[in-house]
Design brief:
Layout (H helix, E strand, L loop, with lengths): L3 E3 L2 E8 L4 E8 L9 E4 L3 E9 L3 H10 L4 H10 L7 E7 L4 E5 L8 E5 L2 E5 L5 H13 L5 H14 L9 E7 L11 E7 L5 H16 L6 E2 L2 H13 L6 H11 L11 E2 L1 H9 L1
Antiparallel strand pairs: 1-5, 2-3, 2-9, 3-10, 4-5, 5-6, 6-7, 8-9, 10-11, 12-13
Length: about 280
């Protein structure tokens, strides 16, 4: 197996079993870290491959997880078959929340990992162990929040604790849920990448805020009575959307990429209403 350098990287592979979410967050002094490190599949598990990364660990590891292998078994089988294992780093979380992390003996200092229920953290060429410890501590402390938010908090805490010794360049957030993605026709809940940026973790958080605005789901709808209906019609007309209210509303939300937050015109998502009033 060959080697691909994804140096100076820290990551966390994790899951929220109650929500049916698995995901990976990572930051690296490497261009487009999201193209190599994160792998996840709903109901199977999540995996991060880094250091002199072996990208084949991704699909091969997910296949093993899909067949019911534990995180420890996946790490053992992938690394045992890899002559370059001493240069690899790998974190795995399985379908049951089991976790395992592997750091090859030739990974550059500081390199290591920590695991716990539902998470595996790892990093190499770090300022010190504090970076990986911050990933683990933050994940545990944020229990109960959505997995994507927790993973972003982990990256921010790890960077504040020292991060990569060589600096920052790219970051990625990848979270899956069965039928949880766009239009309920995708398993990819969140797939955000910052490929080259002086502050990639902060930029990733900004992008996630936009993602939440456009694709988040509300449980508190507002009934559209006659007064609100008149307001909506007036505001849409001022924005250049004429015709009956339903058509105008559909056209505006489509233009603004808010269609995932729309369910007819008899009720309205508070986020959509706020956006319309803000224009």
């Amino acid at each position: 197996m060959g080697r691909t350098a994804v140096v100076a990287t820290y990551s966390i592979a994790a899951c929220d079993l109650a929500a049916g979410h698995w995901g990976v967050a990572t930051q690296s002094k490497f261009l487009a870290v999201g193209s190599v490190v994160p792998w996840a599949e709903p109901g199977a598990g999540a995996l991060a491959t880094q250091a002199y990364a072996n990208p084949r660990y991704g699909p091969e590891g997910l296949a093993l997880l899909r067949d019911g292998a534990s995180a420890e078994e996946v790490v053992a089988r992938l690394t045992d078959a890899d002559d370059g294992r001493d240069h690899r780093q790998l974190g795995v979380v399985d379908s049951r929340g089991g976790s395992a992390s592997f750091t090859g003996s030739e990974c550059m200092d500081w390199a290591g990992g920590l695991t716990g229920p539902g998470f595996a953290t790892q990093g190499n060429i770090l300022v010190g162990e504090e970076t990986v410890a911050a990933l683990a501590t933050t994940f545990t402390a944020t229990e109960g929040r959505p997995l994507a938010e927790r993973l972003l908090e982990c990256l921010a805490a790890a960077q504040a604790a020292g991060g990569d010794r060589r600096g920052q360049q790219s970051a990625a957030l990848y979270v899956v849920e069965r039928d949880g993605g766009y239009a309920g026709l995708s398993d990819v809940l969140v797939d955000l990448r910052v490929d080259d940026h002086p502050q990639p973790v902060a930029e990733l958080a900004r992008l996630h805020g936009i993602h939440t605005l456009l694709f988040g789901k509300t449980e508190r709808w507002i009934e559209v009575d006659e007064t609100l209906r008149a307001e909506l019609q007036e505001r849409l007309t001022k924005l250049g959307y004429d015709g009956d209210l339903a058509s105008a509303f559909e056209a505006w939300t489509g233009t603004e990429n808010l269609e995932e937050r729309v369910d007819g015109i008899d009720r309205i998502d508070p986020v959509v209403l706020e956006e319309l009033r803000r224009r």
